[in-house]
Specification:
The chain is built from 15 helices and 20 strands.
């Protein structure tokens, strides 16, 4: 049965506050998270569809694409609604998304009339960028209409309500669905349920038609079956350019093979130059930094210095004299985890079964990426926390151990993700938490020892519980708190504080070992995981050295928890260099 207002979910701490809409397959609710006191959107299938003999097929598709969307949102896009969670409530799959207040593009245009060509093209360009991003992940929206384009303000649009179940039960489509199909859906979607990318090309072109004319275009079904005419948008709005008029008509060609075959190809017809943010990504000039690395033996004695090491990086200006340095990490292969013989030695020496989480050792291929030179500092945190929220509020100064250049701590996994979303929105680049594989690859910096420094660490190399020992080194000074970032030597990639200081959140769900882990460097996120925990890496000022090793992995605390030794660093994905 459908949830009633006030219904409290059993699987997650949500309470239903409103019904936002019903479609042919699903019902969408506005719900409040009881712990965070924030609103979210929950989409779930309609109960009466269980009588349909194809219901199992519908659910499998809903679940498969829902899980893919959630993985996609590891890389936040400023014009795509964020998928927060995917779970099951009383045998019904539930997709949880960011709640965006305001009005959709359809109502926005209906209220104020046709947009100017410049304004309309800007909005459609944003949604085009979002669809490009989805298509690269082999996802087709299939419902990219003005009804599913939310306006944060008059110039910023967000694509919502992915059509993951669209077309799987056409017999029960509502009048709203049919009206949307007539105006914005191509014939092959209405008649055959096509899932090709050219479906989104048609819908986006039809959305631009509506935006510049204030009128819905002639439906594809009438054009195909009854030879109804598609009135050129320039006849309804003579002020639009011939370029825009022709781009709309080509995008709305009846036959899919006659349309541009990709969103980008269609955007090119509009002759829209790359946005400033895209220029930053496509043409990212790098600087070079020099540094020195050190290697120690099992007793902690220096055995090698490597001066004149170099790394490429770019500097992100966050305003107010605050910057973020991002180090270029080359792609490559490495052995992730620890071999069985070494694990058994560690278990015996430290009487701790937790080292078995590092097996099986396996080869992983990692693509090039950028990662923060340091953990996020308190100064950097405040600079981003002061920006407009995306999905949740952030404390301006949450850390226990204060200091501009100290790592931020007492931040949850959710807080770290919100930071990445705000940073992405501010810069136009795609920032996120590192995958566990990216983190270990970056930490090792092409080494194979327990630490990137060699066989052990000392209090001269890292901030950890140095009153405990590893290998044969003597005890050292235990500082009992965080230290400013960057005061200890870096690794061969030019990264600082990879061992100790604060634990660092990763994007991955927690798994007890690497059985079934991906080998392509991506985050390991699975919906059969209860999602209460996420991976933490690197150890901290509070931890013994064996927990600060390159391969050590832990979960320590729930993803909504905070502690005085947990922070994070960020990665930037999709950037190219010049």
């Amino acid at each position: 049965m459908s949830w009633t207002i006030g219904y409290q979910l059993q699987s997650r701490p949500y309470v239903v506050e409103a019904i936002l809409g019903r479609g042919g397959f699903g019902i969408t609710y506005k719900a409040r998270h009881l712990e965070h006191n924030q609103h979210f959107v929950i989409k779930t299938p309609l109960d009466y569809l269980k009588q349909d003999q194809k219901y199992g097929e519908y659910l499998r598709r809903f679940q498969k694409e829902g899980e893919k969307l959630k993985r996609l949102c590891k890389y936040p896009h400023p014009h795509i609604v964020q998928v927060i969670d995917f779970f099951t409530e009383t045998e019904n799959p539930c997709l949880v998304m960011e709640y965006i207040p305001g009005e959709n593009l359809y109502d926005f245009v209906k209220r104020q009339g046709a947009l100017t060509e410049t304004q309309a093209v800007k909005v459609i360009r944003q949604i085009g960028d979002a669809l490009n991003f989805m298509h690269q992940a082999e996802l087709v929206h299939r419902d990219a209409t003005p009804l599913n384009i939310m306006m944060r303000n008059s110039e910023e649009a967000v694509l919502i309500d992915f059509g993951i179940a669209k077309g799987i039960n056409p017999k029960t489509s509502t009048q709203t669905d049919m009206a949307g199909n007539r105006s914005f859906a191509p014939y092959e979607q209405v008649g055959k349920g096509s899932r090709k990318k050219t479906v989104d090309v048609y819908s986006l072109a039809a959305s631009l038609y509506y935006s510049v004319t204030g009128e819905c275009a002639t439906g594809s079904l009438g054009r195909k079956m009854f030879d109804e005419e598609l009135v050129p948008p320039s006849q309804l709005n003579p002020s639009i350019s011939d370029r825009t008029n022709q781009a709309i008509l080509k995008g709305m060609a009846l036959e899919p093979q006659e349309r541009p075959q990709s969103i980008q190809e269609w955007l090119n017809l509009l002759n829209i130059p790359p946005t400033e943010e895209e220029c930053k990504i496509l043409e990212l000039p790098l600087s070079t930094v020099e540094f020195e690395t050190v290697i120690v033996d099992a007793s902690g004695e220096l055995i090698k210095r490597e001066p004149n090491q170099k790394a490429k990086f770019f500097k992100e200006d966050l305003g107010n004299s605050i910057s973020l340095e991002m180090i270029s990490i080359p792609g490559g292969k490495f052995l992730m985890g620890t071999e069985d013989q070494e694990i058994e030695r560690l278990v015996k020496k430290f009487n701790w079964e937790g080292f078995k989480r590092e097996r099986p050792q396996h080869e992983v291929t990692v693509q090039p990426f950028f990662i923060g030179k340091y953990p996020i500092t308190q100064k950097q945190w405040r600079g981003i926390a002061s920006l407009e929220k995306v999905t949740r509020d952030l404390k301006y100064n949450p850390s226990n151990f204060k200091g501009d250049d100290h790592p931020v701590e007492q931040v949850s996994w959710y807080d770290a993700v919100e930071f990445c979303q705000r940073l992405s929105k501010q810069t136009g680049k795609k920032y996120c938490l590192p995958s566990e594989a990216e983190w270990e690859y970056a930490c090792r910096a092409l080494t194979t020892n327990p630490f990137h420094f060699g066989e052990t660490i000392t209090d001269k190399l890292a901030n950890y519980r140095a009153s405990s020992t590893y290998a044969s080194k003597p005890k050292g000074k235990y500082r009992g708190q965080t230290t400013p970032v960057g005061i200890f030597p870096p690794n061969a990639f030019g990264l600082y504080d990879m061992h100790g200081n604060v634990w660092e959140w990763c994007a991955d769900d927690w798994h007890q070992n690497y059985e079934g882990a991906p080998n392509d460097g991506t985050a390991w996120v699975e919906e059969d995981n209860d999602n209460r925990y996420r991976v933490l890496r690197g150890g901290s000022w509070l931890d013994n050295p064996n927990r600060c090793r390159c391969a050590y992995r832990d979960f320590v605390i729930r993803r909504d928890g905070i502690f005085v030794n947990i922070g994070f660093r960020v990665v930037c994905v999709g950037a190219r260099t010049t």
